[in-house]
Amino acid sequence: VLNDCKVAASDQWYLIRHHAVLAVLAEAAVITLNKHKEWEVFSVVKDSDFYTLPPPVRNQRGNRSPDLLIYNRSLKFAMIVELIVTLETDILRARMEADEKVAWWKEQFEECHYECLCFSVEIGCRGGFVSSSFVSFLKFIGMDEVEAKKYALMCQRKAFVYSQFLLDGHPRGYSEHR
């Protein structure tokens, strides 16, 4: 139920958990990078209807937007972040899938002469695992280690709570957690 259930996947129950965790990660990125006005931060959670790309980068039909897209036009620098919330035993497989997804986006930015870094950040869906890549990404964008660990813990708890909702048969959560 927590990872590879066909019904849960087709009903997008995992997406609910993923987006709950991503909202916390996006908040951390916005808070950290908003100190510098040149950075633009977009996420599929907060910007699902309006995802702005710097010209001439374009989305392509069938390509899902990255979980987080962060860029600075004046520096010609972009960061693409894919969040993975999965069973701890499936991290490697999930990371390879994320790398495949972001490859097209990275190529788009590089063709526009942007330096582009891609990050796969992982949270275990049972709440017991936060990868070093998660904290490393937050530190890379300028968050101090104490804050980075605080946000990692918040994401870890969010993953655990929404996984518990799945186990309880309430994938969308209870009203007090929405």
UniProtKB/TrEMBL annotation:
It comes from the Eukaryota. This is V-type ATP synthase subunit E. It comes from Lygus hesperus.
